[in-house]
Amino acid sequence: MKHISVGILTQSHVLSAGLSAILARLRDPAVSVTVYPTADDIAGSVPSLLFVDPAGISSDTLTSLRGGSRVVALYMSALPENVIRLFDDTISVYAHPSRIGQIVRDVAVETSGIDNRQELSPRERDVVVGIVKGLSNKEIASEINVSVNTVMTHRRNIAQKLQIHSPAGLTIYAIVKKLVRLEDVRSTIE
């Protein structure tokens, strides 16, 4: 049985207690949960999965937390696109508990090295679009407001998830998944 460390970063006792209870019911993979009231409390910890309440956390703090964790926004109302892009995934507090279980299982598969084609996170989709547009890592980083290292990490994750290792292959994937329109791609190759 795979073990996953999960962090919950929120000042809300209700959110942390509810999410902890849902996570405690998961059996496969086994989960250990740590609640962090502030980002400073995480210092030195690198949970496999980090659920974050986006209220009250800056983009700089979030970037510093990324380390080796998959970071998921735990939201109660609509979030602006520029905030959503800061996270690997998002989940509503109103989502069914099975959705939380699915996120944990996805992380378990990612960390176990099992070859399993998965859907890309919103940030990874942004990186694919940048690659298809012909942007460099630096240009993609600037466009989605992350570091170049983060873009390179996303590129590795994309290649691992999709088993696609060329820009041409990613272009086909992006067209099929409707991340870009064929007309947008034509302008970059002409």
Q: What's the CATH class of the largest domain, please?
A: Alpha Beta
Amount of helix: 40-55%
Total individual domains: 2
**What would you call the structural class?**
alpha/beta
Count of beta strands? 5
> At the third CATH level, what is the topology name of the largest domain?
Rossmann fold
Q: CATH superfamily assignment of the largest domain?
A: Response regulator
What topology does this entry show?
Blueprint: E1 3-9, H1 13-24, E2 30-36, E3 49-52, H2 59-65, E4 70-75, H3 81-84, E5 89-92, H4 97-112, H5 122-132, H6 137-144, H7 148-162, H8 167-176, H9 182-189
Parallel strand pairs: 1-2, 1-3, 3-4, 4-5
Helix pairs in contact: 5-6, 5-7, 5-8, 6-7
Could you describe the 3D structure shown?
- The protein is α/β, with parallel strands linked by helices.
- The chain has two domains: 3-112, 3-Layer(aba) Sandwich (Rossmann fold); 122-189, Winged helix-like DNA-binding domain superfamily/Winged helix DNA-binding domain (Arc Repressor Mutant, subunit A, Orthogonal Bundle), CATH 1.10.10.
- The protein is built from nine helices and five strands, in the order βαββαβαβαααααα.
- The protein has helices spanning 13-24, 59-65, 81-84, 97-112, 122-132, 137-144, 148-162, 167-176, 182-189, and strands at residues 3-9, 30-36, 49-52, 70-75, 89-92.
- It has a five-stranded parallel sheet, with helices on one face.
- Strand 3, helix 2 (59-65) and strand 4 form a beta-alpha-beta unit.
- The longest helix is centred in the middle third of the chain and has 16 residues, at 97-112.
- The protein is globular.
